[in-house]
Amino acid sequence: MIEIDQYLAQKKEIVNRALKECLPDTGPKAVREAMSYSLEAGGKRLRPILTLAGAETLSCDDHDVIDVACALELVHTYSLIHDDLPAMDDSDLRRGKPTCHKVYGDAVAVLAGDALLTLAFELLSRYGLKPGRAEKAARIGSELGKAAGVTGMIGGQVLDLEAEGRDLTLLEIETLSAMKTGALLKASVICGAIAADAGSKELELLDRYASKIGTAFQIIDDLLDVESSAEALGKPTGADQDRFKPTFPAVLGPDEARSRAESLYNEAIMALTDLNRPVELLTGLAKKMVFRSK
After folding, report:
1. Is the pLDDT assigned to residue 232 strictly greater than 60?
2. Residues in contact with 102: Cβ distance below 8 Å, sequence separation at least 6, in sequence order
3. Across the strands, what pairs with 98?
4. Entry pTM
5. How many domains does the chain have?
């Protein structure tokens, strides 16, 4: 039986070591320090672990997919740096530490985020240079680019900014969430599966699983912003309310929002039943993502 907390700790250590090794050791010191500061500030490493788990479910070893997993985390960390900027969410705290722009200034923070994003695709290119991986690298790069771009995360961020002070319908908040948060979470699973040579039916089922979990994860994130503390989360709470942002609890109410997250979790697990692979790992990760307190 998989002990999910132990699994998360082991994979986090593997990811952290690989991320440290992929950082550049040449170039202007200020931006390299800012990149390292944000990348090594902590965090769950959920996205790269989902990549490793998706690949492992399809019998692919960590060392065959670690570059892909790191690319997902580089993109995620870049997005956090930019999210925290005064022009965006204007946050002073991330992962329990002062945000990148608070330490290095707005300009260097912007450039550090840009550098992490470009490093992600450099890493995928290096992955694709290895024998037999060129086509997979192209597919993974396309998947990650779409997930991070205007039809995914960036588009969702724009919708999020435009939504401040407005009342959204449930469909609108689900669309925003699927783009801003869900797209990269889904890509994490799918990119790992592509690296593991998943078939079309396997990709379809994993896409369904990851889409459901991505929305459920955002619902819980919204609830924690209302119910938890900055000390527990490592970032300011109540920010959504302060900026008059529509959230799942605001649209549905806390109880119904939590019920919706649990229903999505059940739908995600149902998607795995036809996979004909060992799904205990993906099931455990989904449970950890939805039934969490931070």
Report:
1. no
2. 92
3. 93
4. 0.93
5. 1
